[in-house]
Amino acid sequence: MTKIGLIVNPIAGLGGSVGLKGTDGMVEEALRRGAEPLSNARAAAALQELLPLRDTLLICTGADQQGGSCAGSLGFRTRILHEASERSGAADTRALAKKLIEEDVCMILFAGGDGTAADIYEAIGEKQPVLGIPAGVKIYSPVYAATPKAAGELARSYLTGALTSLLEAEVLDIDEELYRQDLVDVQLRGYLTIPQEKRLMQGRKTPSPLSEAAAAHAIAGMVIRDMAPDTCYLIGAGTTTRRIMERLELPNTLIGVDLICNGKLVESDVYGDRILELTEGWPLKLVFTVTGGQGFLLGRGNQQLTPNVLKKIGKENMIVVATQKKLASLGGQTLRLDTGLEELDQQLAGYYRVITGRDQYVVAKAE
Questions:
Q1: Whole-angstrom Cα distance, residue 258 to residue 254?
Q2: What residue ranges in 255-305 does DSSP mark as E strands?
Q3: CB 117 within 8 Å of CB 168
Q4: What global pTM score does this model have?
Q5: Could you report the per-residue pLDDT of 317-335, keeping only the tens digit for each?
Q6: Pairing relation of β-strands 57-62 and 2-8?
Q7: Where are the alpha helices (DSSP H) in the chain?
Q8: pLDDT tens-digit series, residues 123-172
Q9: Would you give the end-to-end CA distance of the chain in angstroms?
């Protein structure tokens, strides 16, 4: 049997869909707002890709929501190495990671966000091949696959010997308290060893340089010029979209989603069901941008746009904005979608007209 490790942070991503921009210290508030844990479902989506190897694998993991439940539900043989506290936390992640090293697994899969990656680095350093299954709100670290399915595909390639190259990738984390105040403080926590395969990995999140301010200003003018009356617009996170709010002289949530109509602010920092409540009976459009260096349209830092919200908007009402420099930095890769529902990703896949400047557009493919 081939032994692999699995660590699931059961509270990872809990704050995303309810507008909390992270989960650290906000679990109770996230649950109060109606958040539902998703990390085990995302771990299961990755494990689905390993089903062809099921009879040859032993998954060493934690009990219940730390990995045992999702692995067992798919029929994998499991070995439980750790019983987490009532609500699994960072200490449980670190403890399980150390036990997996002692168990001599050949690879560790982990579902979480940047904080989870930092905990694993703290516990085991660079000594073990690992691979992240994206489940967090903010994921700056390039140790994660682009989607849960991609994580499973990549793990399968590594386990079957089709992929053998490894590299060291950065573990990045940000101060979530500052993040909620629209201040981004990214810190390098260390490095983890991951399979080397650029196509399926998400890459490092990079900020927009100040030199792009003029282009973003021109993009904002285009969007405002074309806004329809009596139509609600969600203005997504990012510095490119922030220029729209600045030109309208409206307050902006840099790392959140704001709702406007007829040039006026309806509500700041909206999310999920609140968006649906505020826009009931109104046409709804979305203005959003691409994450620098990663190329995500959906699924990184904008989980406030829940599947139900995205279904109401529809692909035809999505307005993508990005500077030419930001698109060029992606090196020709397609834009990425990770809504949490594969069926919805498929519905939203295809070609988008991206506004890149005054009367300037490019067509980009998303998948």
A1: 9
A2: 258-261, 264-267, 284-289, 296-298
A3: no
A4: 0.70
A5: 999 999 988 888 888 889 9
A6: parallel
A7: 27-32, 39-48, 68-73, 90-103, 114-124, 148-159, 176-179, 213-225, 239-247, 272-278, 307-313, 324-328, 342-348
A8: 999 889 999 999 987 788 889 998 999 999 999 999 999 999 999 999 98
A9: 35
